[in-house]
Amino acid sequence: MTMLADKVVIVTGGAGAIGFATARILAREGAQLTLVDINGEALRVKAAELAATGAQVEAVEADCSAEADVRRYVDATLKRFGRLDGLHSNAGTEGKLAPTADYEVEEFDRIIRINLRSMFLGLRFSLPVMLGQGGGAIVNTASIASERGLAGACAYNATKHGVVGLTRTAASEHGGQGVRVNCVMPGVVETPLLNAMLVQMFPGGVEEGQRALGKVATMNRIAQPAEIGEVVAFLLSDRASFVNGSAWGVDGGALATIRH
Ligand SMILES: NC(=O)c1ccc[n+]([C@@H]2O[C@H](COP(=O)([O-])OP(=O)(O)OC[C@H]3O[C@@H](n4cnc5c(N)ncnc54)[C@H](O)[C@@H]3O)[C@@H](O)[C@H]2O)c1
């Protein structure tokens, strides 16, 4: 028996590395999916790739930080599938890196909008549907940067701390009503977002950065996107029926240790 048979799940940032790897796993586990992304071209390619495996997939090009777009992706899901059982709220961006003392105010506001407002809006417009149905599960994507400072990334870091706060608050509000809200805190994962950060952080670029950041984890390597997706799938499924309000490190032990 698959873990998510007949469940309807929305994945935001669904054309990106973690989002799409997760979507593939959710489809493998029997879920019907709405993929949401601001990058329409990549979204169409990824949705077609998934549909070719036999999965039921709706694709919605949308800006997850815009209220009307979030209402639209929820409505499109209800129209296509008639219900909503899960949301993996995952869209995000790294933003420019600079010390806090130099950080551009407009860039700070932009990152708050994309990484944090989008998470609030996802909760705001999916929760009423799930509460009305009497059940559902939400998994937000936070980060190990939710638990530690990250020099040069004040905006990104603040948003990822905020994602944990939104998660715990929604979990506190609705745990007794059959809706569970959790988040994952990925460590360093090989994705375009990571590489965009590494070229800003390391003179030797992506290769030097991946080597250096691999040492952050006890396992001496960075993660592949599917390693995050497997945990998201579990948290969205009924197998995680008593897991609520938690922030799951999927980080190869990075938060568990002080490397020296
Ligand atoms: N890669 C890592 O090491 C790492 C670590 C911790 C957390 N994360 C988080 O994982 C999530 C996914 O990132 P990824 O690493 O797969 O990067 P990615 O760049 O491959 O995917 C991000 C996706 O989000 C989409 N997106 C960006 N802004 C959007 C918006 N306003 N509306 C809709 N879609 C939007 C992008 O088009 C892209 O497809 C992000 O929230 C990121 O912060 C990544």
Give the tally of structural domains: 2
According to DSSP, the number of beta strands is 7
Ligands: nicotinamide-adenine-dinucleotide
Our estimate of the beta-strand percent is 5-15%
Structural class: alpha/beta
Characterize the main sheet.
Answer: 7 strands, parallel
Distance between the amino and carboxyl termini: 44 Å
Count of helical regions: 8
The helix fraction, in percent, is 40-55%
Instruction: Please report the first level of CATH classification, the CATH class of the largest domain.
Output: Alpha Beta
Which regions are unreliable across 5 or more consecutive residues at pLDDT < 50?
A: none
Overall pLDDT, averaged? 97
What's the CATH architecture name of the largest domain? 3-Layer(aba) Sandwich
Order of helices and strands: EHEHEHEHEHEHHHE
Written description of the protein model:
This protein is of the alpha/beta class. It has two domains: 206 residues, NAD(P)-binding Rossmann-like Domain (Rossmann fold), CATH 3.40.50; 32 residues, no CATH class. The chain is built from eight helices and seven strands, in the order E-H-E-H-E-H-E-H-E-H-E-H-H-H-E. Strands 3-2-1-4-5-6-7 form a seven-stranded parallel beta sheet, with helices on both faces. Helix 1 links the parallel strand 1 and strand 2. Helix 6 crosses helix 7. The radius of gyration is 17 Å and the shape is globular. The N and C termini lie far apart (44 Å). It binds nicotinamide-adenine-dinucleotide.
